[in-house]
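Researcher: Good morning. I'm working through a list of sequences from a screen, and I'd like to move beyond sequence-only analysis. For each chain I'm collecting a predicted structure so we can compare shapes side by side. This is the next one on the list. No need for commentary yet; just the structure.
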Amino acid sequence: MKTIDKKRKNKVVLGVSVFVLLWALTLSALFSIVYFSGRMPAYVTDFTGDAVAAVLTTIDSNAYQANALGIFTSSASYIAIPEIGLVSPIGYPTSTDIAVLDEALLSGVVRYPDSALPGENGNVYIFGHSTSKLIVRNPAFTAFSNIHKLAVGDIIYILFRNAEYRYRVTKVMNNVSPEEAKKIAVGDTAKLTLGTCWPPGNVKNRTIVEAEYVR
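Model: Good morning. Structure tokens for this chain:
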């Protein structure tokens, strides 16, 4: 009789343990989806940013290509910056028409058509939306909200045509005029330039991040 009671107790303990584990995994998955979708309020992302960055920086470049995070696909292009918890698709419109670019920005960040492609000699100029709002309907509007927090030496990953390109941040500039931003975005050296509004959500000036090509 005692043996039967012990078996029942073990089954109950096992059942509770499995239930708790499944709930923990489900909550973790939901948190990850919301976090990387850009829908997480800024005060939460600021609090968890260091932890997310620590996790992402331990992932080797091969892990990105192997779709370890479940966000990279062989048919798409992405930008990832672990230090600010940024992952966003990159659009490649072929027209410089403002309406076309604005439409592309609804789905992520955008590579300016007249700039170089990743891996080419020249400047890859990528721009995106930023905002100071805590909650927005479209996560693409928050894509570059935190690039002003980057520091010299931070690594930026670009996935393009099944290959990963790494760039190291060399300069972060805020309050740059639109005219000056256009000059900075031009060059023959293999590098990456990120641009967005400064302050976030204000179109008056720009935040510009320059990064050198690593490999």
